[in-house]
Specification:
Length: 341
Amino acid sequence: MKAPKILALQFKYFGDAVLMTPALHALRRHFLEGEIHLLVPEEIAPLFLNLPWLARVWAMPRKRDRASVGSTWPLIRALRREKFDRSVDFAGNDRGAILSFCIGARQRLGPVEPSGFLGRRFCYNQRVPSAPATQHESLRLAHVLSGWKIPPPDSLETEIRADPALAGTAKKILPENDAVVCHVATSQPKKEWPLARWAELDRRARAAGARLVFTTARGEREAALTAELKKLAPETVALPQIAELPLFLAVLSRAAVFISGDTGPLHFAAGLGVPTIGLFGPTSAMQWKPAGPLHQIVQGGKCNCRGTSHVCHGGHHCLTDILPEEVFRCLQRRIASKQTC
């Protein structure tokens, strides 16, 4: 019997995409002789390029909220020539549904979603009701595979790999291999721990002999956060903004511990095997936290923000309830466990 050629699609971004890797592992284990391909937006393709158990990663040339038929049609034609036996769309949004139909695998699996354009349900020939929103996101994504009778993954731990060719450049940017990397920015300001809390954490860590270095995403607002942090704590050490995702992953893989709010880099670090401390407030830690014994979370207070808002509209920012001493205790536990291994 011919081994199946399978295409997985995921048109969500960064942290959401990393949380798909347990489902990809389950798919790989079920079809041991199969050939697993992955189609994702080009800006997140570097997350998966170095996973040896994927036959190929296809990068869709598009940006968030923008698409061009002229640039995507050649890729669709190339994918059609692959003659996939099966495709599975993990996101279930409009773009993934349309691409599933256009690529034309014989079996096209996708989740049932209540929103979207009217013809979306006809883009698949197999559909699975969505898992409860209260489940961990990795488990919800793996639930889509139940349409092919594939059991849930044994572990929800994620996996990505840095490009080994960038190890030397990464070492020049972050020479120490015992640095605690702290990421102060997120795509939604309401998920950011106050800068005064970061400054106090740096002071405590410095007094205890731990080395903290700070990063942000690229952009003017993110650069301004670093500048403001330096005003609050002039001795803080900030890494330069890194524009290229592959190099950022290589630098991140050198961290001894990674601390941030609920943002993509938190899941990058976890996928790279770096111990993490996640600071949660507006989002559910039970749904979005990194899985596995290397990872700790600290939960803020009750959040009154609207789920769709990017900034805090409540009278009290829930993340201010996370105190530096709590995060420092988590860091001490991680350092102590590493020393006793």
